[in-house]
């Protein structure tokens, strides 16, 4: 079964927008295009439901029902319970709130493990807890390859570690980390896991029931949706951590870690992401399936398409003397997020690519710790070329031709 790329692209109005025609989008790791079901739900909410939800009048009841539907649908897609999914203004904010909760639960001298492969959002809030007497241990990447070795993690684990924080995949290294294996190691040592899935989820929603992390975070605006942070936290852990919301919400798991009120319209629109997955499944498969099984099937379709497009890009850049490919050159175990260290300023190169119809980015992408550990010149940064399942073979050809001229 191959992904029907023409069907996929019809679900994204951006591809028909006049200002974007002829432009090939390769900064998807910074935020994806939005699918039509999300746009339609957001428009409907703002035009028909924009009132305080959960009141007894019809517009309010419908608005509240759509918010509940979003949480229920996403939980089914991810393979978790509906109250284990909550929304916040961003993944960075969600992580910060979690860090405050862990700080209240932990004792001075206890430890949290973080990595230097992470985006700052899943590193900085935890590192700040040294001010509260919490020990922070760093699981370091290989400076040549960017790889995180689970053996190195084992050497850091002991009975003082309460939490292990790591990315499903880095937004610059791109290698997909073995969440199930890492979580098993942490659990064996008596620790919980917090997984930053922001750079992985756009390439297929993960089956969290199978992977087993205690916390999983990702951003809806990078998974074809509105600007919301989505957090899955297991009920056992969520009830163990101190409530961070209003005192009268303490008994509702999905409200315990959202001290601010939800963005009603954007939460409701998140159900459109599940609509989109269901559309892809119905178009490609005949048999019915559970929401999580549909998610797995669509995940595999997306990943197969991405790997096929990623192979020629990796092949084109890995042999160039003027380019250092960050992360693995094998497309099988990496996301289509390709960071290149050049001998020129990456932001300037991205600007030149723009004149050739390529939308890409240059800089450190909030992954400065990872790039510094790998010896990348901060003044130059990296050129990041990131795509997702709606990218077409023609756009890859357009990118390769532009790179050939530039590099």
Distance between the termini: 36 Å
CATH top level of the largest domain is Alpha Beta
Whole-angstrom Rg: 21 Å
- Sheet with the most strands? 7 strands, mixed
In total, the number of domains comes to: 2
Summarize the structure.
With about 400 residues, this protein is α/β, with parallel strands linked by helices. It is built from 15 helices and 13 strands.
What does the model show?
By secondary structure, the chain is α/β, with parallel strands linked by helices. It has helices at 5-10, 36-49, 58-78, 91-105, 124-127, 150-156, 179-188, 208-211, 235-240, 264-269, 271-284, 291-318, 346-354, 368-373, 393-406; strands at residues 24-25, 85-88, 111-115, 135-139, 161-167, 192-196, 215-219, 229-233, 323-325, 337-342, 358-359, 361-363, 382-386. It folds into 2 domains: 5-34 and 291-406, Aspartate Aminotransferase, domain 1 (Alpha-Beta Complex), CATH 3.90.1150.10; 41-274, Aspartate Aminotransferase, domain 2, CATH 3.40.640.10. It has 15 helices and 13 strands. The two termini are 36 Å apart. The relative contact order is 0.17.
Please specify the SSE layout and strand pairing:
Elements: H1 5-10, E1 24-25, H2 36-49, H3 58-78, E2 85-88, H4 91-105, E3 111-115, H5 124-127, E4 135-139, H6 150-156, E5 161-167, H7 179-188, E6 192-196, H8 208-211, E7 215-219, E8 229-233, H9 235-240, H10 264-269, H11 271-284, H12 291-318, E9 323-325, E10 337-342, H13 346-354, E11 358-359, E12 361-363, H14 368-373, E13 382-386, H15 393-406
Parallel strand pairs: 1-11, 3-4, 3-5, 5-6, 6-7
Antiparallel strand pairs: 2-8, 7-8, 9-10, 10-13, 12-13
EC number: 2.8.1.7
Keywords: Pyridoxal phosphate, Transferase
GO molecular function: cysteine desulfurase activity
């Amino acid at each position: 079964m191959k992904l029907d790329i023409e069907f996929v692209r019809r679900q994204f109005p951006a591809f028909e927008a006049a200002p974007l025609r002829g432009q090939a989008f390769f900064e998807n790791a910074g935020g994806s295009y939005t699918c039509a079901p999300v746009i339609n739900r957001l428009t409907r909410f703002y035009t028909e439901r924009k009132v305080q939800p959960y009141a007894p009048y019809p517009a309010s009841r419908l608005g509240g029902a759509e918010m509940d539907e979003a949480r229920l649908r996403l939980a089914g897609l991810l393979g978790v319970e509906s109250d284990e999914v909550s929304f916040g203004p961003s993944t960075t904010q969600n992580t910060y709130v979690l860090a405050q909760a862990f700080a209240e639960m932990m004792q001075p001298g206890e430890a949290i493990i973080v990595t230097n492969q992470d985006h700052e959002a899943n590193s900085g809030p935890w590192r700040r807890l040294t001010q509260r007497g919490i020990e922070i241990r760093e699981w370091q990447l290989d400076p040549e390859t960017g790889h995180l070795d689970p053996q190195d993690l084992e050497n850091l684990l002991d009975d003082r570690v309460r939490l292990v924080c790591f990315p499903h995949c880095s937004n610059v290294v791109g290698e997909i980390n073995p969440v199930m294996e890492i979580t098993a190691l942490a659990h064996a040592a008596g620790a919980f896991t917090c997984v930053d899935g922001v750079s992985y989820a756009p390439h297929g929603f993960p089956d969290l029931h199978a992977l087993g992390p205690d916390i999983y975070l990702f951003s809806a605006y990078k998974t074809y949706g509105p600007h919301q942070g989505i957090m899955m936290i297991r009920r056992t852990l969520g009830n163990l951590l101190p409530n961070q919301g209003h005192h009268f919400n303490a008994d509702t798991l999905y409200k315990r870690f959202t001290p601010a009120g939800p963005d009603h319209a954007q939460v409701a629109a998140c159900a459109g992401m599940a609509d989109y997955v269901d559309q892809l499944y119905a178009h490609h498969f005949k048999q019915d399936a559970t929401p999580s099984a549909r998610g797995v099937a669509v995940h595999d379709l997306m990943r197969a398409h991405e790997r096929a497009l990623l192979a020629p890009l990796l092949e084109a850049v890995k042999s160039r003397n003027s380019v250092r490919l960050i992360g693995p050159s094998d497309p099988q175990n990496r996301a289509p997020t390709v960071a290149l260290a050049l001998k020129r300023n990456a932001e300037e190169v991205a600007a030149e690519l723009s004149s050739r119809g390529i939308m890409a980015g240059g800089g450190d992408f909030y992954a400065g710790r990872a790039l510094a550990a790998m010896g990348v010149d901060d003044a130059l940064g990296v050129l990041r070329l990131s795509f997702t399942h709606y990218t077409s073979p023609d756009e890859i050809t357009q990118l390769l031709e532009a790179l050939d001229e530039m590099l």
